[in-house]
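Audit log entry. Action: structure prediction of a protein-small molecule complex. Ligand: adenosine-5'-triphosphate. The ligand was supplied as SMILES and no pocket hint was given, so placement is left entirely to the predictor. Protonation state taken as written. Sequence taken verbatim from the request; no trimming, no tag removal. Recorded inputs:
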Amino acid sequence: MEAGNDPSHNPVPEDQISALTEELQRTRKAYDTALERCRNIQAELEAQVEARSSELARANQDLQRQILERRRVESQLQQNQKMRAIGTLAGGIAHDFNNILAAILGYTEMAMMDIDAASPVHRRLSNVLKACDRARDLVQQILTFSRQNDATIRPLAPLPILKETIKLLRAGLPSTIEIESRLPSQLPMVLADPGNLHQVVMNLCTNARDAMIETGGRLTLSADVIELKKHDRRLAPELLPGHYLELTVVDTGVGIAPEFLDRVYDPYFTTQTRKNGAGLGLAVVHGIVHRHGGSIHIDSTLGRGTTVTVRLPVADTEKQQAITGNGQVRGGREHILFVDDEHALAQIGQQLLERLGYTVTSRTSSVEAFEALRSNPDRFDLVITDQTMPNMTGTELSRQIQTLKPELPVILCTGFSETIGSENAMASGIRGFLLKPIALRDLSEAIRQALDRPTC
Ligand SMILES: Nc1ncnc2c1ncn2[C@@H]1O[C@H](COP(=O)(O)OP(=O)(O)OP(=O)(O)O)[C@@H](O)[C@H]1O
Ligand SMILES: [Mg+2]
């Protein structure tokens, strides 16, 4: 057989081979493309799984945070209820307790006037006065918790409230935020509502915390007393000259963009992404500060931090103390009508004032006091009255006096637990407040202040 006739030795035609090779290459290419796509799809799926997992992890973290937040709110609510209970209790005993203190204070001061200042008895009695001061502070501290009445402006010691707020804040701050309190050992009384003051400091410090939550930093709360004279009105043009409590909250956080500085007080303006940032904090602070006759100022540098300064007017009694320091007790010759429904207090008031040279008529009923005035309005130069009395309160008495003799000055004595609405006080024409139990120096200064002030 000829080799040419063996079909197994028939060569495959060239064109067929190249067609097959091309086919093979195409298949190979398609396979590579499919493989590549598979790999891409796999990578995409892996990325999606990863994204979803971290989304779930974030949701989980969010949930944990919400649970913690809820617990915090619940415990705050409990704390609130506890404080209200303490407040009710303290409010109940404060009036009586202050009257007891007033008697101790009054008789001690009188005894001290009777003896030589160099005698050991004088020294011991001055220790009694110091103890009275401590007792007064104690009552005040307890009453810091009361805050039952909203927005009632009265003479108030700010230190216990500032300290309490810092304590509350410390508990809620992450360890990356340092808090520094620069509070002096003493601060004058301010005319303010305790709940409002607490809210102002709390809102400002919360903003400072929010501004540093990512980066950490330092929050500084300081307090000081400043005197605004006529010529430095540009510092706070809306304020009248006088003494002010200046509170400053400084943070080293993100700062406020210049274009936002004008808008931060607007209700609902917020840059907070967290759900509970309602944008009301500064609007509330602004409202409170202005209702109290104070001012607020914000200074901020983007990326560096923010300083918020709040100024609140110092209460009248303390303005005098700041001006006169620990000066001499001043007397006078005018005729004072002294009104207190507690017989012992009316007696102490009368005796103390007589020692200062004044002519004093005392009454234990506001109705009788008003009768004494009506029968001879020109007899008296000044009225000093307790607030809480049966039939007619001190503010009501003052209002009646206004209709009878508007230029007659009235000084109102209030206990820690009593609150006088600012509108109420203004409408009643009250010239000064004194906080019971009253120290002789405060009383004598308040009297001179009320009598020497030109009538408007
Ligand atoms: N100390 C600060 N540092 C940086 N930005 C601040 C500071 N204080 C206020 N801001 C800015 O002002 C905005 C308004 O503040 P505001 O306290 O009124 O509302 P909020 O903090 O956003 O919400 P809320 O007080 O209701 O929780 C904030 O969202 C923030 O942009
Ligand atoms: Mg806020």
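Audit: result stored. The mean pLDDT is 82. The domain at 324-452 is CATH 3.40.50.2300 (Rossmann fold).
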